[in-house]
Amino acid sequence: MPLEYEEADAFSGHIGRTDADSIPAYPSPLRSPDGAPNVVFVVLDDVGYAQLGCYGSDIATPAMDALAANGLRYRNFYTTAMCSPTRASLLTGCNHHTTAMGGIADQGTGYPGYNAQITKRTGFLSEILRDEGYATFALGKWHLAPREETSLGSPRRRWPLGRGFERFYGFMGAETNQYAPDLVHDNHFVEPPASDVDGYHLTEDLANRAIEWINDIHNAEPDRPFFAYFCPGAMHVPHHVSQEWVAPYRGQFDDGWDVWRKRTHARQIEMGVVPADAVLTPRPAWIEAWSEIPDERRRLYARGMEVYAGFLTHTDHQIGRIVDHLRKLGELDNTIFVVISDNGASPEGGPHGSFNSNLYYNGEPETFEVSEPYLQAWGDPSTYPAYTFGWAHAGNTPFQRWKRETHEGGIADPLIIHYPNGIEAKGAVREQYAHVIDLMPTVMDLIGIERPATIDGVTQVDIAGKSLMATLDDGGAAEVRTRQYYEMLGSRGLYDSGWKAVTWHPFIGQNPDVTVNSMRGFDEDPWELYHVAEDFSESNNVAEDYPEKLQHMIELWWAEAGKYNALPLHSMRAINADRPRLSAPRDRHTYLPGGSVTSSMVVDVRNRSHKIIADLTIPTGGAEGVLVAHGGRFGGYALYIQDRRLHYHYNLHTLERTTVSSESAIPEGDVTITMDFDTPGGGHAPAEVTLEIDGTVVGSGTVPKITLHTFTLMGDAFCLGHDDSTPVTDDYASPFHFTGQLHSVTLAARGEAFEISGQEWEASRRSE
What we know:
The chain is α+β, with helices and mostly antiparallel strands.
């Protein structure tokens, strides 16, 4: 064996005058501890406490159930109530405000606990394990970089490869189209390897890639352990899955959410994932009783849940493929396999569900009449669906409320830990209180490593997480976590030695009884008190019985909030807030051919007059393709050439579509094309569209109603010379690359930049 020396030490060989009288030595490679286990984190999205089979559901999740049967389930495990904050806490062991991720990455505000700019002072588990000799890779959802840092021209320091992961394949934002994702491979965008026509689905692609990368390590460095961070977009909106996975659930939810909650609660008690005396909390009045819903609406609502169930079973199957592959390699028993959800089930589908979730963010009423025509198509590529919030509430059985809130329905989540080589207990349910920040120190404890004082030369802050090691093999071990604070969008909570104080702060869009007029100050929020050691589901508010206890816990909350940067309280956090950028916002910019650009980095033409000016060369024989597109199948606009004519298509979230076309053909040679969009703006105003070729008007038309807020959600970015992900119009199939030469595209906006108040947004949603 060659001589080795540590990189920081002196050369341990000998250097003579020639090789003949010298002794070589090499810097030691990074080696992990002997027999170090692999680590797999599976982070599900928007899965409620009651939606996995091993937590009482009747949805088939055999792969995760098997991990639970051969490992542990925790029934008092908690997260932050939202995705980015939970993921930041999971990877750092720090409370979410400490990481600056007090809300989702897209909604950073100008306060240290909320700016969404995670610093190196809160090191990631991936960075620690990388430096311990692990191979590290992330797959699926990232959502840990501010939106303005997610374009191809953006800095990469908060991308996965900037935070300790050696490989990445997934998407940067909160959600993506499962059939046509906005994919990133390492540090660059790529097109999906297939389309929905070919049967493509993102979760399958992610599982394929995970297996491939595990094989790469096995083939090259079989003794090297790995850390796999596997985060499918499931079960976040859109609920996308092929009908073969939905078919087994046909009719299964026809009895409705009230009956489903009762049956699920009974199974939970039988399994021991809730105590025998846990009370099923009542359905709130603003969720309809299933028995009072007309049959035609019941069918639509049940269909939404059937698709959700099929999507979850499909996701479980992909997780099972990874598990089976590790078993075949003989690696499963020496793998710390952790499965969590990032928050409770999500109410984003509203009272009726939605065939297109983009409607909600644009003030478009999501009525039964709008969604009903899509009943049979629900879940296929023509939809971007979400189920009703009645099913979200049921998914959090036996708790109150849901995602984004600090009652149990928002923060209580499944936790499965499977590690046969390190945990003797099999199939047990642990009662000890645990928080997502506790998982990183637990994993390090299991591996037998310590958190370094510095990472990449940066001194680390103290973590708040505590190892759960003592509870893994001892169900009677004392709780290691006796206090934990919560804050999300102004809702607050505090757990302290078996008691919980909690208050809900309303904001528009959560449920039908919240309007602008019902908003209130934080000092007006009523606090509730629960003795959760005896009242598992927060069913009995004892605030009036123990006023001094409640006041003490409120004061403790303020102390914890100050300690961990949770102040100031603020609930409305705009996605498109005016945040610092490397380049100042502008009303006019000339774009050159290249990759897509994140929406927030583009000249803001939403709800205001503007021009698109394209300089191009048409070759002999003509050309076709997209010149510029922003958005996709579920909302946006595109300027394109087809059949030698210029076309502008405006897609109002699939509800209304308008195409304005040129009357004359586009000539060959150098051409300047102009689209003028003239609107008074403000609300869903109309617009007059004029098309010009080399200064001559060749077409005009009216867009009767324009987008209120956003063309697109997370995917379908601003594109030059093509239309990524999904097409804005069915007149072409993406990417429909332009076959001529596109020199530049100029966006020139006029008038005030778009702004919308909560009152305007609410008025729009309730006006139809």
